[in-house]
Amino acid sequence: MAELVVLEGLDGSGKQTLTRRMITHWTQQGRRATSLAFPRYGADVHADLVRDALYGRLGDLSESVHGAAVLFALDRRAAAGEIRRLLAENDVVLLDRYVSSNAAYGSARLGAPDDAAVLRDFPVWVRELEIDRFDCPVPDRQLLLATPTSVAADRARARAATSEDRALDQFERDAALQERTGRMYRHLAATSYLSPWTVLEPGPDGTVAVPD
Asked: Start and end of every Thymidylate kinase-like domain (predicted)?
């Protein structure tokens, strides 16, 4: 039976690189493997609206935590059928970001994990919206690429400096938000939010072993 695996982590944590390594690893094992990344910029109108909000092009919508979270969720709702098709055609499907990214970043914007009420309530709201109401597939396991916040921030800045279309967005420019999001991700992993998690700690050279 096909397995739905999710890779989560901060902006600049190295998810794209690890995604490629994992797909290659599984393919070499003889498994049919493919990947999909969220938000699906250029492929879904909700994702494109999210990008506009993150760059301040949608007025005060960018200030609404729940408004942005709904747009992220609608992108995944629109992709639910594609995810199920990929699961039917492969042995493993790897998603670069998924529902937990909404729970982590939204909670961090509201103050979690320093605010107990947000820590408790916002991830539940996201799960009820994306899983219960929008019927997005539930992941079988999730991987947290736990790159240190400072390292991830340096990578994001370096990427922005070398790419004309990759300027730092509202989330990436906020160092305090990234730090809270990192802690929120660890809380979600520790509490097995949506599924079991594995935390991948980079070694001294910044790389992690590819999980089976």
From this structure: 7-177
